[in-house]
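Morning run. Coffee first, then this:
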Amino acid sequence: MAGLNLTIHVRQKESFEELLCSSTLRNGNQEYMLYLSAINIFLSITAVIGNVLILVALRKDSSLHPPSKLLYRCLATTDLCVGLIVEPLQAAYLMAVYNEHWALCRYLLVTVYVTGYGLASISLLTLTAIAVDRLIALLLGLRYKETVTLKRIYLILAIFWIVSSIAAGSYVIDYRIVFWCSRIFTPIGLIISIASYTKIFYTLNRHQMVVKDRFQHAQSSKAVPLNMARYRKAVYSALWVQLALVACHLPYSTVVLLLNRMRLRNASLTYMVVWGVTVTLVLFNSSLNPFLYCWKICEVRQAVKKTIRYVFFCRKR
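And here it is:
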């Protein structure tokens, strides 16, 4: 019975790859393949440029606590890898379908899936760590810098990269491992993030009420509201990045769940086109994040502006 189930799952995996690398997907959609490939190339360029600027800006910015800065640098690095690796591979996959290179198509499809899943997992885990980091900063106060150190964050991020790489690579052995990892750890990460932000905003509201009640006697604590205002900005910045990831990944997750529930052979051509669009939307998240950093984090925005001015100034000279 176990052998029969394994055979069925392997056939489903092969059917899925055959469907995405077949003339069925290509016929009547040649222009769609070209347009989507061009979009992925454009997103690759914007993701690389945007995240390189962010990494330079984070290196110059001294306002963030080093462990918090390291978490953002990890997130920008994963987005940079998406722009350098995944999006060019996705564009190459679409062109392989367009040119009917089916052997190359299946190889590229597996490579895109493994690298894309691995990097997406690291991004999700890092954003979860950022949410927990903001909560710890609020709860521990002055003890935060003693508790959250660079060494510990490096260790946590190393675990994220190793676990995500192993889970993504397991697709080659048995795709069900990746499927169940995503179904288990993605909800857990989101629940932890939601719980962290809920606790943060509940605590901030309570703190605001206390500050209002004691405002008349707060001559010596005028710096506290200012620090809390800065903390609020940091929380909202992290929350925007988290919401952007959910918004970009949710359509793809929905399409994949629907695809798993239906017979692959009966999947309509329109449905597969929607699948390709949702994949591109997932990759778009790596180009969107640098804009969110610049929009929500003033120090990063100023550092990016200085870097751009320096680049253009050198070119003029």
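The CA atoms of residues 294 and 301 lie 4 Å apart. Good start to the day.
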